[in-house]
Design brief:
Elements: H1 24-31, H2 35-42, H3 50-63, H4 69-80, E1 89-95, H5 110-122, E2 125-131, H6 141-148, E3 153-156, E4 164-165, E5 174-178, E6 182-184, E7 189-192, H7 194-208, E8 213-218, H8 219-224, H9 228-237, E9 249-251, H10 256-266, E10 270-273, H11 277-284, E11 294-297, E12 309-311, H12 314-331, E13 342-345, E14 348-350
Parallel strand pairs: 1-2, 1-3, 3-5, 4-6, 5-7, 7-13, 8-9, 8-10, 10-11
Antiparallel strand pairs: 12-14
Helix pairs in contact: 1-2, 1-3, 2-3, 5-12, 7-9
């Protein structure tokens, strides 16, 4: 019998020729400018005009330019190696609090500005603080004031209200906000992870032997963090036995009669709260801390350094805000992004004398 002929394997399909990468030279040729000008424009440098930046950005998009991540990483490495004395630009730190010195003097807000200044100095930026809460600054004037100072990058730290809508056109600014108080404009956000902070405190309390944790907060404080306090507590509380689940006490204001009734009804053995004044109220009501009742402060910077609680790493929030801002500048993405990111920073546990081994 004739042997069957072998069927040759199918030839692999020819791969489509790789599309050549668009280079800075290609953009420069199309824009009629130098390669260096294109490099400056794509990094939003002050070395070229706004008109050139817009022209280069338009042509780069049309040609399908994509930055090489390895080159970008190497250039960032070189920039980080520059001495801190090299100046890039000025960041506007906008204080909307009623007090022009709110971010000075060692209070809760002070570490925000300290962290911003430290990271800005490390990366070659200056920081100029503006009291945007000055009643003399009318809505709509702030943008002009910042632009007159040559400032195109802003950081908005915590605001005095919650879910605040600012009359500030950010379309020409690189911007980032710290905490959850700003609703609009919708900017990239850096915040402490409040829900994780509650879970951390509950885990530490359980390790000490506490079994009936309670949570006390005002409505306004919970609203300022988008209810992440109560969300974190209730979410972890569900994992306790039904007999040990205590509903959070959320009040319009800290109220002694309501607190007494809640303590009597639910008998917690440790109380979590972001309010340092609650400890004094508990002691005034006859509770010996920590002998009768443990107390954990969820914002360690707001309380006594000797207390047990969660350090929100406020200065690190400021440092991270600067990093987010610089990344925006490197990508040349001013204004409100289509999808604003929120970066949550975990806190750390600080042992203290307001809890004990049970």
């Amino acid at each position: 019998m004739p042997r069957p002929s072998a069927v040759p394997p199918p030839r692999p399909a020819k791969a489509a020729p790789a599309k050549p990468k668009v280079s800075l030279k290609d953009i420069a040729a199309a824009a009629g400018v130098s390669t260096m000008a294109v490099s400056f424009a794509l990094r939003n440098s002050d070395q070229v005009s706004e008109a050139t930046k817009k022209k280069v950005a338009r042509i780069a998009k049309k040609l399908g330019y994509r930055p090489d991540p390895e080159v970008a990483r190497y250039m960032n490495y070189l920039r980080r190696g520059r001495p801190s004395g090299v100046f890039h630009s000025t960041i506007g730190f906008l204080n909307f609090q009623n007090n022009p010195r709110a971010f000075h003097g060692g209070g809760f807000f002070t570490p925000f500005l300290r962290g911003v200044r430290a990271r800005a100095e490390d990366t070659g930026y200056a920081v100029e603080e503006f009291w945007a809460g000055d009643p003399a600054i009318k809505p709509g004037r702030l943008k002009g004031i910042l632009q007159a100072r040559g400032i195109d990058s802003i950081i908005i730290p915590p605001l005095p209200g919650d879910s605040v809508h600012l009359a500030l056109d950010c379309s020409e600014f690189f911007g980032v906000t710290i905490a959850f108080t700003l609703e609009e404009p919708r900017l990239p956000r850096v915040s402490h992870d409040h829900a994780e902070g509650v879970r951390l405190a509950l885990d530490e309390a359980r390790a000490l032997g506490y079994r009936r944790p309670g949570f006390v907060c005002t409505e306004r404080s919970d609203a300022r963090v988008r209810h992440h306090w109560t969300g974190g507590f209730v979410g972890r509380d569900l994992h306790l036995s039904p007999d040990d689940q205590i509903p959070p006490l959320v009040l319009p204001a800290l109220d002694a009669p309501a607190l007494d009734a809640w303590l009597k009804k639910h008998r917690p053995d440790v109380v979590l709260s972001p309010h340092p004044e609650l400890l004094a109220l508990l002691e005034k009501r006859g509770h010996r801390i920590p002998r009768d009742l443990g107390f954990i402060i969820l914002d360690h910077a707001a309380g006594d350094p000797s207390w047990a609680g969660v350090d929100q790493q406020v200065a690190y929030l400021g440092r991270t805000a600067v990093d987010v801002l610089i990344a925006q500048r490197n990508r040349n993405e001013p204004g409100e992004p289509d999808h604003a990111r929120t970066i949550l920073i975990a806190g750390t546990w600080r042992p203290g004398n307001t809890v004990r081994k049970v």
